Every structure is written in C-alpha cells, then in structure tokens.
Amino acid sequence: MTEVWLSFLAGLAGSTHCLGMCGGIVAAIALHARDTGPGAQRLILLSYNLGRIGTYTLLGIIAGFMGSSLDMLTMKTAASWVFVAANLFVFLVGLVSFLQVSSFSLFSLESSGGRIFAGILRWAVSDANLFRVFVLGLALGFLPCGLVYAPLIAAAATGSPLAGGAIMAALGLGTLPLLFFFGTASAALTARLRGNLFRLVGLFVALIGLTGLWRVLGKMGYVAKFPFW
Length: 229
Prior knowledge:
Blueprint: H1 2-13, H2 15-32, H3 38-69, H4 76-98, H5 118-126, H6 130-140, H7 146-157, H8 161-182, H9 191-220
C-alpha cells in the first residue's frame, strides 16, 4: 500500500525530530547499560525501540478498527465522507508543515504532557534491562508527538485494522535507524538541516493524505482508481 511506504519515509525523515524528543532518553538508556557490554547494550536499545514501535502498531490497529466500524453503519456514504475529511486533514497538516506554517504544523501539535512519563523513565534506567526498557518503550509510544498524529488519522481513514497497523508500524520502523545507531547525534545537525528535514516530513505526510483521499474518492466513484489500490 502506498500509504505504508510514505509513512515509512515520513518516519525516516522525521527521525531527527525523534532525536530531539527521545535522544536524551536513548542516551540515558545507553549510559546506564554501558557496563553490560556492547552487544547487550545494543539489544537493550533495540528492546526500547521495539516497545515504542509496538505501541504505534497497536494504536494503528485500534484506529483502523474504529475506522472500519463506520463501514458497518447504514449510512455508508456518510462514513465515506468522514474518511474524505480525515485524509484531507492529514494532507493539510502535512502541507502547512512543508510550508512551515508553525501555528498548525505537525510539531506545533505537541504538548508538554511528556512530564507524566518521568516516573517510568526513572524506573527503567535505574536498572536498564531488556524488560524494563521494553516497557518504557511501550509507555513512551503514547508520548504526545506531532509526527504520530497525522499518520494515526490516516490509519483510521483506511478503515482496516491491518492497514492501520501497517501504516503505524512503518512509521515507527522509519524512525528506528537514526535512534538506534546515532543516539543523540541530532546535536551535530545544523538548525537549517533539521528544518529542511522537518519540511520533508510534512511533504511525505501530505502525500499520505493525498493518496488516501484519492483512494476513498476512487471507491466513491468520483475519481479513477489506480490498479494497485
């Protein structure tokens, strides 16, 4: 599915933003696991990221299931227009992020709610092991993050738990390489480069919304369907 690949690319391009939010957490985990040896340290970092991706996937499945429930309503046409509105919102959020309209961009949608996760963070790093950091990743997958919101709406708009889960799993997998291999390397990037990467995220998110919108309109008979949809 096109949206899955675009979601992966959005995660890949937006992973520098993840470093800004989670780089300190990754560094703390690595620091507390340094005595376990390089191999074990890498497994611990991977465990944290798998927990985070697991939560994204679960959220995508739930969102897709909620979207699929609309198909069971008698007013299926109304449900289709809900999907149209959802994908249009995704497209607009991505577009204004690409155009750097800060008041309505992906990253202005975040809040300071991350403080509530401080307790579980302290618990995890006090004895960093595979289980604790996996639980930490599961919990921090719920951390308010602008990068997640639009793909999550796109996942709901698919009307499929499987497709919704795939979109969110792809997003998480896209963020994995930089977080896993480079840790807090975002400090080495210039502000201009980070800004350009954030614009690239917006472009990919806009394309997710646009392809989803075209797919729904195709099912409704308003536009031509592509063979691979």
